[in-house]
């Protein structure tokens, strides 16, 4: 890594971006479950057997991580490396969470894990880039 890139790392911005992304992700998950309760009633878990519902959770997760990347740039003011680190920390946290909780959809929907691994860092970079683009 370039020394200039390392100097631009702001730990506070990465932590703030990660916490915001996790908070937004939790809020969106609650809203999704409430919406699915209205659609499916008591059998809400049936909805998660369909790839479309699982894809919606992936999109909401990526949206939350993009917001986290945006927040990291708001705090740091420069250096997309902070947004990338938000995506990297989110990816690491999600991998650990899936590993230690025996993520039940991972066996049936391996595409979800692969897509999440590929798209998390670009999603956080997109949030940081949006901040740079709108504030430059």
The parts where pLDDT drops under 50 for at least 5 residues are none
Helix share bin:
over 70%
Task: Please report the total strand number as a whole number.
Answer: 0
**SSE string, helix = H, strand = E?**
HHHHH
Radius of gyration (Å): 16 Å
Shape category = elongated
Query: Which percent range describes the beta-strand content?
Result: under 5%
Report the sheet with the most strands, covering strand number, pairing sense and barrel closure. none
Give structural notes.
The chain has helices at residues 3-7, 11-40, 51-76, 80-100, 110-134. The chain has five helices and no strands. The longest helix has 30 residues, at 11-40. With 136 residues, the chain is mainly α. α2 (11-40) packs across α4, α3 packs across α4 and α4 (80-100) packs antiparallel against α5.
Q: What's the short story on this structure?
A:
This protein has helices at 3-7, 11-40, 51-76, 80-100, 110-134.
Fold topology:
Blueprint: H1 3-7, H2 11-40, H3 51-76, H4 80-100, H5 110-134
Helix pairs in contact: 2-3, 2-4, 3-4, 3-5, 4-5
